[in-house]
Design goal:
The complex is a heterodimer of chains A (130) and B (137).
Chain A lengths: L1 H38 L10 E6 L5 E6 L6 E5 L17 E5 H5 L3 H18 L5
Antiparallel strand pairs in A: 1-2, 2-3
Chain B lengths: L2 E7 L4 H17 L3 E5 L12 H4 L3 H7 L2 H20 L6 E7 L4 E7 L6 H20 L1
Parallel strand pairs in B: 1-2
Antiparallel strand pairs in B: 1-3, 3-4
Helix pairs in contact in B: 1-5
Classes of the chains: A alpha+beta (130), B alpha+beta (137).
């Protein structure tokens, strides 16, 4: 009787330990498999909207913007290097700046005339001066 | 409005307080509209760009400045940007704005010295009266 109780007790304990270790082993294996599956990335679907580099009818490169939810297609020509230097088209503001000393001096009107002449010259096509 | 005078001032500026009544009287005599803008640090419109302050910025010099100024810009640029950052401005600024039929033109006078107020006001009177004739014509 005593023998059988010890025997079954030991058997139950060993079974429990073995079962637990085997379960752990299985879980570790499963995790490894999941890792392998995760490493294989799915290929991203081809973009349906955004900027696309295209070639127009004159065989020049350009970008096309395709709308996301609208049927919009805007072609944007690619930037090219201009042979001439770009210049600003906006005219400078016609402002004359004076200090108090200049404004209080009797020659103030002469200075105004001189600056106005400079502005006229610059507006005709010279360098910016104001 | 064809001809107007704008005064940029600061609330705590003593020169602004001295100039204000003089300018008001001058403009009243000549029947020219005068607007006073308080642009100082403690004013409501402290961050409104001023005509006078824009000249201190390196961008302004780079775009509109004379070639001599542009040459010196490399050295002065940090100082100018510092002045812009702290919002340093000179007060008072008197801006005389008129339209000659083609475009608006402006004369900006920075600062004020009460000792030479008479000469300054005389010059202003002459200028405004002549401009008034030009504008009316």
């Amino acid at each position: 009787m005593v023998y059988s109780v010890f025997y079954y007790g030991m058997e139950a304990i060993t079974r429990a330990i073995l079962g637990f270790t085997l379960k752990l082993y299985e879980i570790a294996k499963k995790k490894e498999k999941e890792k392998v599956v995760k490493k294989k990335k799915k290929e991203a679907p081809a973009p349906t909207w955004g900027f696309f580099s295209t070639v127009n009818m004159y065989n020049a490169k350009e970008y096309t913007w395709v709308g996301k939810s609208t049927n919009l297609r805007v072609s944007i020509p690619s930037l090219i290097k201009l042979p001439i230097k770009a210049h600003e088209t906006a005219k400078p503001p016609e402002r004359l700046y004076f200090t108090f000393g200049e404004a209080a001096s009797p020659d103030w009107f002469k200075e105004i005339e001189h600056l106005a002449e400079l502005i006229e010259k610059s507006s005709k096509g010279g360098k910016g001066a104001s | 409005m064809l001809l107007e005078v704008i005064m940029e001032a600061e609330v705590n500026c003593p020169f602004c307080a001295r100039l204000k009544p003089l300018l008001e009287k001058l403009c009243r005599d000549l029947d020219v509209p005068l607007t006073i803008k308080y642009l100082g640090n403690r004013a409501v419109a402290a961050y409104e760009p001023s005509v006078a302050s824009s000249t201190f910025s390196p961008e302004w010099v780079q775009r509109w400045g004379l070639p001599e100024h542009k040459k010196k810009l490399e050295k002065i640029a940090p100082v100018l940007s510092y002045l812009q950052n702290i919002g340093a401005q000179t007060f008072p600024n008197v801006i005389i704005k008129w339209h000659d039929g083609i475009r608006t033109k402006e004369i900006v006078v920075r600062g004020f010295n009460p000792r030479r107020a008479n000469e300054y006001l005389r010059n202003l009177y002459v200028l405004l009266s002549t401009l008034k004739k030009v504008v009316r014509r």
